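Two records follow; treat each independently.
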Amino acid sequence: MHDQWQSIIFDDPGSKHPMLPLVIKVMHCIYRTVNPTRPPPPTVMKWRFSQSLSYQVHEDGYVPSIVILNLREGRPDSTMQTLFTINLNTMTVNDRAHNRHFPVPNEIGSSLRVLDEYVRKIVRETKEAEVEEARRREKEREEHRTRAFYLCLLDKGLIDEDHRRSFSTDSLRCPICSSQQTSCSKCKIISCSNSDCAASSAVPIVRCSLAIHQARRFCTSCLEPPGSLPQLGKCPTCSRLFCSGELTWCVGRPISSNGDIATPPSNLDVSGITPVHPARPLTCGAPTCMLNSEDSRKCSNPGCWSIRFCTTKVCPECITQDNFSCPCGRYRTCGSCESQSSTVRRLLTCPRCLRCFCKSCSYIEACKLCRGVGLCNDCMEEASEEVEHALGGKCQNCQSHLCNTCDDGGQSCRTCSQILCRLCKEEEEVRDFF
């Protein structure tokens, strides 16, 4: 709404609008200033001389960001042509017919300031009325929530009818212990802030343990929104409640109705798919809790079911026997996501000991040209040279290894004399060509 134009139209000469005389005065002055030989229009007129006071409202809603007075004339085809625009912010006139700007004449300066203040008053009063109406509606909702709180206590036998009637819906105190009321940050349901009061157990509301998040309070109904992590969770080590973003979670390995591993689609339509367990907190961010937490892991497979939120890992219950940990310690998979085949995960397998390594592991190398995998570091110390893909040279440019079969000794770079592999040499020749 802030970037939309709103207008006050002046096209009825018989109108009793308080600003109409000022608009006519400004119109006469501008016409005489631009063309003294042409008589100005006597007054406003529908479809002939229809003027408008247009404005946009500032984002705070209390003042206009710009106010424009448009002086218009009707065309024979019944459309309106704007001849002059007067910017009341800068007090300049735009003569659109002659494509020129000039300051407003002194004789109408005070009239334009009155028009500007009139628009400001309209905007201010409109915003104040909206705020007052919003305040009134919120007060009604608050009174409704307070009555619902009292009725809940009455239904649970914590107060009697006379007790309930004695309390005003304007009261911010608990009718049982007189402590300050509290409310859910989402649905605004009311409870008692005193954890020892029976009213707080009747309408449970929990909050984050961090002092900076004390205002984040949720009732049990709002605690677990569908398709997302719970709003709060309890650290299994220190037993304190934290916002979901302060905890590491496991959302539960998905399984289909027949017990097979299933991957939820991106649209979160999980019909027929059930997690092994509901979303479960693993640890908070405290060093002692992280040290004593379960042996969870972050799956390195980007398509893993656990990569739904930035604070999720895979708990031991969801890690399957097909899990993989590279000796370098930088690549680990949970074994329970569907892309565990070697063709998808692109692991390197040592041809001698058949151990697997991640493709960025420093314990093993693959030939850049034929993709043949060489021996791992341990096997290189034990194996003889007759292994088919024993690695030979190393390109001094891309630092990739070549097997003995593909290593032709390399060629020197024309510029720096580095020994280049065949691919780097071809790239150099292409650059030289262009």
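The next record belongs to a different protein.
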Amino acid sequence: MSLALRSRYAQVLVVLITIQVIFNIYSSNLFISRLHEHGEIPPKDESVSMIAAGAGHDGLWSSKSSTNDGVKIFAFADSHYVALAKVWYERLSSLGYTEHYIVCVDHKSYKKLSKENYRLIQRYISNPDYAHPVVGFGRQLYSLRMQFTLEMLQNGTHVLVTDVDNIFNRYVPLSQIVEERFDIIHAYEMKYPTNLFQENGFVVCAGHQFIRSSPATISYLRDEVLGDCFKANNCDDQVQYNVALQKLQIHWNTNPFGKDRIKISSNITENDGLLVEELTGTARLGDKYKLKIKIWERDFCWRLSNDLPGKCPSMKNNWVAMPTKIDEHISEKRFNKVGKKIEMFKVWDNLCRGGDAR
């Protein structure tokens, strides 16, 4: 090939590449614009930012293919919970998980964790109300958690939301959960909210749940669960999810109030009378969608107040434990709240896993 011909070929190649780049940018902007028009992407909120450490080709996830069918595990942490978030993250890593992320809700937590090799997402809370940890910062966090979950579903990501003090005890492939074809899977809570527990016979936990990315779940979370919570910045997600489930008028395959239902018998009021077996059901969401819903059996996703070691779950079956109020088992009384939660991992392993720390 002559020098002139080579030069001409290079010029044509540059023009073609430029045209392709312009077309890709235009297509991307048009697609995002259409999503905004149809309400599939919420308007940008200047009080938050979202950046993934080590972002891949799509701006968020690594381009490396996943064996777990597009599911990501998210737990949230602020600067006060960094040490606990590390324990949670490293335990999942030791079990073989590679899809778990810590969502940092302030810059201090991100700055501390980014010095080490953790998968992080920045999603900051504006003006955190630390002076009121329950009705202030707690509700700001819960509101953000619901909004973030919605955005992930809109991104095409199946979501497993969990708390940083939840104790994972064995590896369960996330693809196994996806293959069950349920739209929403919850873990049992104890009795909060109490009014809904009395009406429905059970309540679910907002601190451990799977939600499939689909038009039905996006509509459900946006319209029935979230509502104005993110704007109000003052919602309890456990109340929101349980109220939304009640409004669905779910047709359960098994009657939760049936006399044959197995329930926990305990001297601890919070535990006594809690359902044990899994529930599955379906519900109509308007005229357009049908939701398939499941609640994991309590032995698989264990949630009780103390009652250890007498009511430890089975080692072979239990996936996640969410113990609470076990201070009597913590020998060091000077620990602060986070220190007690970290120690809880050790207490759990000693009492319920035969010392088998992950």
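Discussion point: Confidence is low (pLDDT under 50) at residues 17-59, 62-66. How would you locate this feature using only the token line?
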